[in-house]
Amino acid sequence: PEDLVGFDCATASEQAKVLFVDPDGFIKRVSEIIQDGDMVLNEELDLVDGRVFHRDFIPIRTVDNEVEILWHYRDITNRKIASMALEKQAALQQILMDISTKYINLPLSQINHAVMESLSKLALFVNADRAYIFDYLWEDSLCINIHEWCLPGVMSYKHNVDNFSVKDYPEWVEAHCQGRSVIISDTKDVKKETIL
Question: Is the pLDDT of residue 83 over 50?
């Protein structure tokens, strides 16, 4: 817009700095870029509202041998989210491949140790402080806790969740029978009186 032509970059930066996670770093970097005068492309900036921007600085020499400056900011939040999701998916696939190959020709005596190692890898990947493996005993209508992994310093609850009746959680059983996941974001949401 015409009203921005010749607008003082330092003033604009001071006004905009509150939008960024590191406002002082934002101002300092703008000064560095201007002083260096070199082209800068795709510099990543984190905003306080969670968005992510790319910044370009492009000095343009005019026919009069003067230098005009183009600052270009663009929102790459959706691209960043998609990229992080792909990276996370690739990392999970690698973990699953490592786990699956580990069990090929593994002696029976090492199975329990390998299972605990696998449980640990998966729990750490999802930032869990505990992870369990339960087995269904259909003839007794029970689900029993056969493995527990805890982050160092986290108290074990295996004795509290040793087993429970499948009748207490029919939606879990149905989901598992259909090959679907049961996601519990917060264990406080689980009916405490039926599991402990």
Answer: yes
* Mean of all residue pLDDT scores within the chain: 87
CB 161 within 8 A of CB 132: yes
Give bridge partners of residue 75 from the DSSP assignment.
53
Pick from 187, 189, 194: nearest CA to 132:
187
CA gap 48, 69 in Å, rounded: 26
The pLDDT value recorded for residue 6 is 56
Asked if 160 contacts 196 with a C-beta cutoff of 8 angstroms, the reply is: yes
- With 60 as the cut, is the pLDDT of residue 5 above it? no
Nearest to 92 by CA among 49, 71, 54, 123: 123
